[in-house]
């Protein structure tokens, strides 16, 4: 949306007569508005959490009254706090204001009413060609959904960091935890029913912790399938590692055999990464290369090499598990 559209949409949080007049304009849609309108109609009908108030005739005046208006919170603290997660000596102060139960209920009702309006207009306009007024109505409420979702996310970002700290003992990668936590937060926002009387933080925190628990279980299975005497990144030796036993040698032999036969159907790039990282080539070095060394060799960044390695190991793990079953 343009800056003008955004200001108009944001202003709708406090509805007045002038906005109603602007919304009812019958001028033809611009080319960009038409493209966005057609795109929205191609999307699945928007999901929403229904509420009895949505059927009331004065619902917009009640839900979007000036008294219900909330400021967009400042989240400049988020990135410094996220980077400090791994340092137990530091605790960044999270300055996001906490919503009262009444404010939280009003915000979620606004969010779901906007989604309700989008869904109703999608159904109506998919069956018949709409007027410019109806098209702008759809564009308006679709923009409101984005603004209100963003507002809810900003008010609750601290939940993800708090749960990541709570699960810090799981030895999961912090970046992966934050990424997964943010995904779960968005899903929780979409599914939360404020009409049941619970606080959103209670619902979201349980969902985030469950996601972290599943990540930990998956990581445990991966490590048990590929035990090595290096840390997960193989960037440095593990001083507490025990000598390689016969079972580990058997697993490494299984890994080498799967790589040679390419039974997991690895791509050429995945085969090269696994070969260099685990020194699987008899003519190569005896010790695996680091992520950075492999990246320099094949022309990729260290992070991209790590992603390719994880995808390849997941394929190999599934192949080996199928053999044992």
Write a structural description.
62% of the residues lie in helices and 0% in strands. α11 crosses α13 and α12 (291-298) crosses α13. It is mainly α and 325 residues long. It folds into 2 domains: 3-158, no CATH class; 246-324, Orthogonal Bundle (Arc Repressor Mutant, subunit A), CATH 1.10.10.10. The model is unreliable at 1-26, 86-92, 228-232, 234-239 and 241-248 (pLDDT under 50).
Keywords:
mainly alpha, 325 residues, 13 helices, 2 domains, Arc Repressor Mutant, subunit A
Short summary of the structure?
The chain has 325 residues and is an all-alpha fold. It folds into two domains: 3-158, no CATH class; 246-324, Arc Repressor Mutant, subunit A.
Q: SSE string, helix = H, strand = E? A: HHHHHHHHHHHHH
Helicity, in percent? 55-70%
What's the β-strand tally?
Answer: 0
Low-confidence stretches: 1-26, 86-92, 228-232, 234-239, 241-248
For the largest beta-sheet, the strand count, sense and barrel status come to: none
Rg of Cα set: 26 Å
Overall body shape = elongated
Q: Structural class, from helix and strand content?
A: mainly alpha
In angstroms, what separates the terminal alpha carbons?
Answer: 53 Å
Measured by DSSP, the beta-strand proportion falls in: under 5%
**Count of helices?**
13
- Tell me the count of domains: 2
Which whole number gives the mean pLDDT? 77
SSE order and pairing:
Elements: H1 3-11, H2 17-23, H3 31-42, H4 59-63, H5 78-83, H6 101-127, H7 132-166, H8 174-191, H9 200-225, H10 246-261, H11 268-278, H12 291-298, H13 302-324
């Amino acid at each position: 949306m343009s800056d003008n559209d955004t200001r108009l949409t944001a202003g709708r949080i406090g509805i007045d007569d002038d906005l109603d007049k602007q919304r009812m304009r019958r001028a033809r849609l611009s080319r960009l508005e038409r493209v966005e309108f057609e795109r929205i109609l191609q999307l699945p009908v928007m999901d929403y959490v229904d509420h009895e108030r949505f059927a009331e005739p004065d619902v917009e005046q009640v839900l979007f009254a000036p008294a219900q208006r909330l400021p967009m919170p400042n989240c400049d603290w988020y990135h410094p706090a996220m980077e400090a997660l791994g340092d137990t000596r530091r605790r960044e102060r999270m300055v996001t204001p906490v919503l009262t139960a009444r404010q939280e209920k009003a915000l979620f009702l606004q969010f779901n009413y906007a989604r309700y309006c989008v869904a109703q207009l999608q159904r109506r306009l998919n069956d018949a060609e709409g007027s410019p007024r109806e098209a702008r109505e759809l564009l308006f409420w679709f923009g409101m959904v984005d603004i209100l979702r963003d507002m809810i996310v900003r008010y609750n970002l601290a939940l993800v960091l708090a749960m990541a700290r709570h699960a810090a003992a799981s030895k999961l990668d912090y970046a992966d935890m934050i990424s997964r936590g943010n995904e779960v937060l968005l899903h929780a926002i979409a599914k939360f029913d404020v009409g049941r009387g619970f606080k959103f933080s209670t619902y979201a925190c349980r969902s985030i912790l469950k996601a972290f628990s599943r990540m930990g279980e998956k990581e445990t299975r991966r490590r048990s399938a590929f035990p090595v005497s290096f840390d997960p990144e193989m960037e440095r030796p593990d001083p507490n590692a025990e000598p390689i036993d016969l079972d580990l040698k058997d697993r490494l032999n299984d890994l080498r055999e799967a790589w040679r036969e390419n039974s997991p159907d690895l791509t050429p790039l995945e085969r090269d990464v696994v070969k260099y990282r685990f020194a699987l080539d008899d003519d190569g070095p005896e010790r695996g290369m680091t992520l950075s060394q492999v990246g320099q060799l094949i022309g990729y960044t260290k992070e991209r090499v790590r992603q390719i390695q994880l995808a390849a190991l997941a394929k190999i793990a599934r192949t080996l598990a199928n053999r044992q079953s």
